[in-house]
Amino acid sequence: MREVAVIGAGVAGIQAALDIANHQVHVHLIEREPSIGGHMAQLDKTFPTNDCSMCILSPKMVEVGRHPWITLHTCTEVTAIEGEVGDFSVTLQTNPRFIDPDLCNGCGDCEEVCPVEVYNRFDAGIGVRKAIYKPHAQVVPNIMIKDPDHCIECGLCYDICGRNAVLREQSPVETTVHVASVVITTGYQVFDPTKKPQYGYGLVPDVITSLELERMINAGGPTSGEVRRVSDGQSPRSIVFIQCVGSRDLQVNRPYCSCVCCMAAIKNSLLIREKHPEIEVAICYMDIRAYGKGYQEFYQRAQDLGVRFVRGMPGAVIDSTGPMELQVEDTLSGELLQLHPDLVVLSVGMEPASDPAVVAARFGLTCEESGFLEGAHAAMNTVGTIRPGIYIAGTATAPKDIPDCVTQGQAAAMRAYTDAIRVN
């Protein structure tokens, strides 16, 4: 049975699927969202080189969509995995798009005529989308999706579609695929900053998350690459990043470091200072963790460009009639600082995607205390699990950056490939 299932189509899952398929083993790449790409598709640049994120990811997404050895299942969730290594039965539930994928060419005419605008989750709420839409311009597969919860059934999309691809009714479809091995790359979600009410997220309009800032900075995002105050749409004169929001924090049961937050804040502060040197940028941190290749030099570059690093954590964000107020002690100098930023960015940490206990039970696996999927902890099998033939990679196992996700995805791919050819 020369088939493998890869569950989750972020960068780790995409890399794993391509590596397996390039060895002429058939891959079922399963993604619950309408498009593949995961969180990396939301980013503007990658650190420490500031290369365009989609310039790296998009060719891989297109290759997945065209690969003869990959079957792509989007809007699809895994409901059960039964069997053993060499003979797994994976039950899939494909949720309706209300679009005929064989007829839709992704032209977007239906989106243009749709009168409904709602919160766009891909833009982290900074932008809006229609009730029939594509999450972003470079989706794979290039197919629309209709949101039945917000559709008012005005009928305009049915009338405008010359290919009659928009469906009035569609039901979930359950299928089963039989594979030799499984790679789980279900990714992560970001910490909900409303659990730290002292920072005012959701109450103070100009307190945003690092993911919302990513969508602002992105040239393809809702503000066309311009950083704006949410309250009035104006360019901020000063920005403060607050690190470790939902990381290294026992109060919210997140004792671990999220690995990428320091470097992501440094990257975005550099992008802001390079484009708008008149904007003052400060980063309030516990410790700067610049551990990777080129990371320390990237950190030094930000210092040289005038980014202010304050070793201390603000107690609260105070909303006043003018700029916001933050009081913080710089523990390096012992100085008590009063900061008055126009925009506050909360560097939110990573946490397991959806309900980790439910996901682990569905796959017959266990979770670590942190909630991430637990590996076998074997020195020679860093991607193995307690269930032979099922492998884990990427941020499903722990917070990590893009290079580490890709590397681990490749390792899991080779383990799964070995299982697939062994049973033939």
Automatic annotation (TrEMBL):
E.C. number, please? 1.8.-.-
Task: Give cofactor(s), names only.
Answer: FAD; [4Fe-4S] cluster
EC primary class: oxidoreductase
- GO MF term (any one): metal ion binding
Cite the annotated pathway. Answer: Cofactor metabolism; coenzyme M-coenzyme B heterodisulfide reduction; coenzyme B and coenzyme M from coenzyme M-coenzyme B heterodisulfide: step 1/1
The superkingdom listed in its UniProt entry is Archaea
Q: Which Gene3D superfamilies match?
A: 3.30.70.20, FAD/NAD(P)-binding domain
Q: 4Fe-4S ferredoxin-type domain: which residues?
A: 95-125, 141-171
Entry-linked PROSITE patterns: 4FE4S_FER_1, 4FE4S_FER_2
InterPro entries xrefs: 4Fe4S_Fe-S-bd, 4Fe4S_Fe_S_CS, FAD/NAD-bd_sf, HdrA-like
Keywords, sorted A to Z: 4Fe-4S, FAD, Flavoprotein, Iron, Iron-sulfur, Metal-binding, Oxidoreductase
What family is this protein classified in?
Belongs to the HdrA family.
Q: How does it assemble?
A: The ferredoxin:CoB-CoM heterodisulfide reductase is composed of three subunits; HdrA, HdrB and HdrC.
Q: Which PANTHER family match?
A: COB--COM HETERODISULFIDE REDUCTASE IRON-SULFUR SUBUNIT A, FERREDOXIN:COB-COM HETERODISULFIDE REDUCTASE SUBUNIT A
Record's function text: Part of a complex that catalyzes the reversible reduction of CoM-S-S-CoB to the thiol-coenzymes H-S-CoM (coenzyme M) and H-S-CoB (coenzyme B).
Record-given protein name: CoB--CoM heterodisulfide reductase iron-sulfur subunit A
Q: What is the lineage of its organism?
A: Archaea, Methanobacteriati, Methanobacteriota, Stenosarchaea group, Methanomicrobia
